[in-house]
Structure formats: C-alpha cells, structure tokens
Amino acid sequence: MSEKWSWSLKGKRALVCGASQGIGRATAQSLAHLGCEVDLLARREELLKEVVQTLSQSEGQSHGWMAVDVLCREELEAKVQEGLRHRGGWHILVCNSGGPPSGPLLEASEADFKKGFAQHVLANQLLVKNTVPFMKKEGYGRIINIISTSVKAPIPGLGVSNTIRGAVASWSKTLAGELGPFGITVNNVLPGFTLTERLESLKKAVAQKRNISEEDVEKLWKNQVPLGRFAKPEEVGMAVAFLASSAASYISGVSLPVDGGRLPCF
Known about the structure:
The protein has about 270 residues and is α/β, with parallel strands linked by helices. The protein is built from 8 helices and 7 strands; from the N terminus they run E-H-E-H-E-H-E-H-E-H-E-H-H-H-E. Strand 5, helix 5 and strand 6 form a beta-alpha-beta unit. Helix 3 packs parallel to helix 4 and helix 6 packs across helix 7. The longest helix is centred in the middle third of the chain and has 29 residues.
C-alpha cells in the first residue's frame, strides 16, 4: 500500500480537546503512535503535562499542551491563536468535551441547556473557524467530533446531553458539506459504554436512582452489548486515528458508532 493511502500520520499535526483523560487522552496517544505531532487541550495543566510524557516521540516529533476551559471562549480563542503562531496550524482537530449532567428533560434548567450548547456547539464552532484556514491551505483536514450513540437512539436519563449531542451531529453534517470541496472531512465518533470517569459517574447515578448496586447496573449495561463488555478508551482512540488518516479520505459526514454492536439501529 502506498504512503498516500496509509494510516501513517507522520508530518501531520493535531489539536485534541479533552485530552487530559479518558477518550481524549487515548486519542492523543493513538495519533502520536501513528507519527502525528499532538497538542493537547483541557482545563488541568498538571494532567496535560503527565499525558504529554506518555505520548510516542520519534525523531522530529514534538508535542505540547494548552490549559484552558472551552467555556471561556475569549481565553480559548487567545490560546488557540497563540498555538497557531507557534505551530503554524493543525491538520487534525478532535472536538471532545465532557457531557452535560444526567437527568430527565423536565428537570433541566434553561442554564443547563445554555451551558451544554456553549460547551459543545459554540466551542466547536470557534475551534473550527480558527483551524480551518490552515487546513484549506494544506488541502488536508480532518475534523472529528466525539459525541454519543444518543444521536441515533436517545439514552434515557440524559435529556440535555441527547439534545446537545444531536445539535452537534447536525452542525457536523452541515459542515461536512461546506468543507468537502477543500479536501476537509468532518465526521463523528459515537462511543458506547466506555471505561471512563464519565461512565463511572453515570453508573453511580443510575444505581442511586434505581436503588440497586453499581455491579447490577454494570451487568444490565453489558447485557445490552453483543460483545459482552465495555470498550477500552484506546479502542475509541484508534477509530478516531483511522478517520484522521489518508486511509479514510473518502469518508465524510458520517457518525461512526464504536459501541460493540449495542445500537438497535443502523
């Protein structure tokens, strides 16, 4: 197979959001393993420094980080602009942020919706507007959003998250149409049950609400998955890495479930 159609990301640069833990961290590690230079973005600088130390670093590779809360959009834009001056630009943008709190829609406040929209749609839009010019110039761009299987089948008890994730999916599909002529693909990865802090938090909430043990919740969830287990963050990270590579050059505008076959729909 020629280099043009390989998984190699040597010579490419990526900006990975939410990279201090979980799927974001695993994604950064997967991209670096394939030769990509990675800049990490998250709130906690001490964790970002730790993650950088875990990234593969071959000759010529260098990695960095920027500590910022995506809800602070002025600061976010300033950090990204500083990164652009230092790096020149990124070929790959991974939009990833923690999901809104659990709970039914009728218990959600207006502030819950506004925060979720700002954290996901508005932050993603800001990142794209700042990073796309370089991608256009390079004739190569990959925008990959980590969202949720809820965009295909809403998840009970995640009212605000279902709503906001759906908005991101529609935003992404629209963007894929607008950016395709410039050689830029836009896709979503939809993790199912994945071994992250988010899953642990949701498991505790469900256990308390149903008055059952966390072990019973875990069994119930695993019974919904044909593969019979939860995903490792690395398994989601490698799906992102594939979409970032030239091997996925004709895949755009899709929402790819990484859920062990759990979704009841196509």
